[in-house]
Design brief:
Length: about 750
């Protein structure tokens, strides 16, 4: 479900020095292999690559996106059965695992402006010529946000920009009363579920979310069907479940949603919204925006519709009525295993969801078909006599769009076994054209760099690693360019949420990666009926060459992880990354202290008041409490210890492979390192999230918060909790260092 709108900024000069670092496709070493093992592995990967066929991706995409295949639909089940039959035919031990989850669908959707004009929203995406599946109106899910509560409310509208906490601060400063009002928010800026959450916290009674053409429409490019971008009737469906609290079935937190699972009463499910929410198109939103009264909004709040944007507050008045069928529906995860020959109890897990909001050619089928082609070729290698050392598990998830339902329920149902066996989880989702993006556990950063150095980019023929590096170099600032010149590896992103890696990484502490290409494909079909085979083959990756390249990056990753003598974990990049996080949270408090002092001073000496236009409303903020000096010493000590342990491991393992007799024991310790980054008590106020280094932000949704316990306590100005969390994270890092020390001793 994740989609980031990458905008490529072109800088005019490019130094030729950036190409100096040569393609290391021919490098003889591979992490975790002896040199002769590495040669065999490269031969195996070459064989794997030669079997990849873009025609299969095209054919399967056509088949899987032929009809709407959301949870509960006939075609969702048919797709699961089709995918299972493929895995079976390739020699995988395949099962469909069913779970039963709460899945609301709309019964009533009504939004009408009652004053100053009468207007009723259409709430319909019409078919467009040249797009066959857009005509399947009877099978399409209506436009809505899943897990909104029912509601029937009437009230004046307030425009809240992106609906983030900082937007509500601006509203407060401008003296806008929010109690009993309906929020009109534009998509973007933060994950959609944050908007109704923050609106409800401010006493608002409903939330309408629309796609403004500035962020998602004609301001970005020609609209569909002429171009790729969202047209005036396009609507972004999506989940508004409070996923930063816990994802998965709202009724079965922490346990698999099997038939007999104990279920919460729906009224006690914490992750449903507090107020009704509905997404709309910009043609439906425009009459409301045109009738907003009050002051003109700040420049950064203005969209690209041909009107002046106001805050509103007393006009217009809107009546919104929503009612849902609160059904329990089956979901179908397809799980396909290829048993390891030497270490069957160490699992390399690979997943991509198969369900969509409508036809979902891009999201998720573009990633699904690349994964299937990867699995087919691994199956072929197995049929020709090769066997992986470790067990490989391919997973096609259902119910991702509503809140990572399929992956979360599977992880919760198999938590004990996964805690013992899962070595690494590799996720993909929508795939586009352009630049390689990798997020994940930084213990796998070096591994991710090594794999991507060995795969060629189809457009430029340089390695995908080099092309990513070129992009970072061209778009980076002076400091980033300096680091690129000095640092051997590219940094991978930390993972927040937005796809199926979340339960693996953040609930159980399984080292994970999320991989995809993007930046050149036009986005505008996201979660609409226009996310079709036609759209994808015109504007996505028309020849599926990036689909094949994704299969290479992920296929090589799976094959190396499955075959290596010892798992290719590495800790110096992790320690270096933690160092940057520690620096960030330290700086965050210093910056907050300076800003607080300056704000309080400008209130006290009257300068803030002096710069306001007296004809406009301005509510003077109350002075903020002082920001104390936090004691970061435990964190610095733990970091120092971590860096020493990482260096010791590097010295111990440099240029050698652990003796055969102790490799399994070493693997067990390495697998356990990520587990040691979790704490069973979980994060404050959200115990499902146990990882102490990476979490989706409580007020950002998909956006990551690193060292979340510490960082969010500081952001919320909860100083006691911040001090306590510094101790928790420091202890976590020390435990992690203990594990590395154990691993180093094995050599
Ligand atoms: Zn998706």
């Amino acid at each position: 479900m994740k989609r980031t709108f990458l905008r490529v900024v072109v800088v005019l000069f490019v130094s030729s020095a950036m190409f100096a670092q040569s393609l290391s496709l021919g490098d003889s070493r591979i992490m975790g292999f002896t040199s002769s093992g590495a040669a065999d592995q490269r031969a195996l990967e070459a064989k794997f690559d030669s079997g990849l066929n873009a025609g299969n991706l095209r054919e399967w995409m056509k088949r899987l996106s032929l009809r709407p295949h959301h949870v509960g639909s006939k075609y969702d089940k048919e797709n699961a059965e089709f995918i299972a039959s493929l895995y079976k035919s390739w020699g995988f031990d395949t099962q469909i695992e069913r779970f039963d989850v709460l899945f609301p669908t709309p019964k009533t959707r009504l939004v009408e402006m009652t004053a100053p004009e009468k207007f009723t929203m259409k709430l319909v995406e019409p078919p467009v010529t040249g797009d066959e599946s857009s005509k399947q109106q009877k099978e399409q899910l209506p436009t809505y946000n899943a897990y909104s509560v029912d509601g029937d409310v009437t009230g004046p509208v307030v425009y809240v920009n992106y609906g983030r906490p900082e937007d509500f601060e601006t509203l407060e400063r401008n003296g806008i009363d929010l109690k009993g009002k309906i929020a009109l928010s534009r998509y973007g800026g933060a994950w959609r579920g944050i908007k109704p959450k923050v609106a409800a916290e401010h006493g608002m009674i409903a939330c309408i979310i629309y796609s403004d053409p500035r962020d998602d429409g004609y301001f970005q490019g020609d609209v569909y069907p002429k171009g790729a971008y969202r047209n005036e009737n396009g609507v972004q469906r999506g989940s508004v479940m409070d996923m930063p609290l816990y994802p998965g079935d709202p009724l079965t937190k922490n346990v698999g949603a099997t038939k007999d699972a104990k279920r919460l009463d729906r009224r006690n499910a914490e992750t449903l919204t507090k107020i009704p929410v509905l997404p709309v198109s910009y043609s439906d939103a425009q009459p409301l925006l045109r009738n907003l009264d009050g002051a003109v909004v700040p420049p950064a709040w203005r969209g690209a519709l041909p009107l002046t944007y106001h805050f509103g507050g007393s006009s217009p008045t809107v009546h919104l009525k929503l009612a849902f069928n609160w059904d329990i529906k089956p979901i179908y995860d397809v799980i396909a295993k290829l048993k390891g020959s030497e270490r069957p109890d160490e699992w390399i897990i690979r997943g991509n969801h198969h369900d969509a909001w409508v036809n979902g050619a891009d999201d998720p089928i573009s990633g699904q078909v690349a994964m299937l082609e990867e699995a087919r070729n691994i199956g072929m290698l197995a049929k020709s006599g090769w066997k992986p050392k470790r067990t490989i598990v391919y997973c096609s998830w259902d119910g991702e769009e509503e809140g990572l339902l399929g992956s979360t329920e599977w992880v919760e149902a198999h938590a004990d076994e996964l805690t013992r066996k899962a070595a690494v989880y590799i996720n993909t989702d929508s795939n586009g054209r352009g630049f390689l993006g990798i997020g994940g556990s930084h213990t796998l950063e070096k591994f991710a760099n090594e794999v991507s150095r060995g795969v060629a980019d189809p457009e430029t023929k340089m390695s995908v690693w080099q092309r990513s590096r070129a992009q970072q170099f061209v778009n980076g600032n002076a400091e980033e360019r300096k680091e690129l010149a000095e640092r051997q590896d590219l940094r991978i992103d930390a993972l927040g949420s937005g796809s199926d890696f979340t339960p693996f990484l953040q609930h159980l502490g399984i080292a994970s990666m999320n991989i995809g290409f993007g930046g050149e494909d036009g986005g505008g079909s996201y979660h609409s009926i226009y996310d079709s085979f036609e759209h994808y083959t015109r504007f996505g990756d028309p020849n599926f060459q990036y689909g094949v390249t994704l299969a290479m990056v992920c296929g090589h990753s799976v094959l190396r992880l499955a075959n290596a003598d010892t798992l290719p974990f590495e800790f110096s990049n992790f320690a270096d990354t933690i160092g940057t996080y520690v620096k960030e949270v330290t700086k965050l408090t210093d910056t907050m202290r300076e800003e607080t002092n300056e704000l309080n001073k400008s209130i006290a000496d009257g300068s803030l008041k002096a710069v306001q236009d007296p004809t406009k409303t301005f509510v003077m903020p109350t002075p903020k409490g002082d920001v104390p000096k936090l004691d970061f010493e435990p964190l610095h000590r733990a970091l120092k210890r971590l860096k020493e342990s990482a260096a010791d491991y590097q010295t111990a393992s440099a240029g050698r492979i652990a003796p055969a007799g102790v490799q399994k024991q070493l693997d067990e310790i390495l697998i356990n390192t990520e587990r040691s980054l979790t704490d069973n008590a979980g994060l404050p106020r959200r115990d499902w999230f146990r990882h102490q280094i990476y979490a989706p932000g409580f007020y950002t949704g998909y956006g990551v918060k690193t060292l979340p316990g510490v960082r969010e306590a500081i952001e919320q100005r909860n100083w006691n909790e911040a001090s306590e969390q510094i101790r928790v994270v420091s202890r976590t890092l020390e435990n992690f260092a203990d594990e590395i020390d154990r691993a180093a001793k094995i050599y």
